[in-house]
Amino acid sequence: MQNIIDKGRIERIEKLKREKNAIILAHNYERAEVRAVADAVGGSSGLTEAASEAGADMIIVCGVDFMTEMAAVLNPDKKVLSPVRNAVCPLARQLSREELNEAKKENPGAEVLLYMNSLANTIALADCVCTAANAFQVAEMMGGDSPLLFGPDHCVSYYIRKGTGKEIITVPERGFCPVHYKISLADLMKAKEMHPGAKVVAHPECRPEVQDHTDYLGSTGGIVRFCKESEGQEFLVAADVGLSSMLRNEAPDKTFYPVSEATICARMKMPTLAKVEEAIVTEKFRVTVPREIADAARIPIERMLGLS
Ligand code: SF4
How far is the CA of 209 from the centre of ligand 1 (A)? Predict the structure, then answer.
């Protein structure tokens, strides 16, 4: 019965998309049913590229607030909608415009690189942004020998520093993603004991000590590619459990174990098929960014798109 209802809803959503010239962008961590109706599925990097190329009149973003803002910044004349009202990313809230301004004053020689998981009013003060997928490439092309001011995630900062050798000043000092930060080294060691032959893949939002015990470290897209191409048959996944379920679909002949079943980004799971349908019908929860902020935030985002 559930499948029949969902099939009907999926058909209605597809029809609405054609009628309203709408597209749906969904993050890899969204529910499988939501990813199934999306026109583009990816991590922050893939979604930014898809938003920059969107030819539709309406864009429904199934993700968290900084992603809908990014789509609105890149598409100021289109309707950008969120299926839910409060899909807030706690990491993006950890660096305020005021704190970044202060750090810029204290480090006048530094170029500002922000993780894409930032709000538009903060990105508006940056020289460039990056995602987990292109962080090394962007960091290496910026700043010459001058230090980089990077925020808000200190674990991603560690990842970039270790991968590029760049001098990085992190702002705030201890910003973190509460979902990935939950995975401890003890969790990973326990999982390794249970599955000694499994390769370890992790997202760079994980703690530095977890990053140091991996076979592959990178973006969600990079993790999917690594697992598909690897000769390994079993993988321990240090990331949102949604990625393990996605990997099972992408590589059904292999086995994936989440390092911790508690690693769930609840905000990413808020959009359901029913809420997606409601969003297209009612057009509520429209996301807009004040023009002055959007114009300033578009520059670092487009710089990243140009570099990568
Ligand atoms: S996984 Fe972490 S960084 Fe990503 S949206 Fe959830 S809280 Fe934010």
Answer: 19
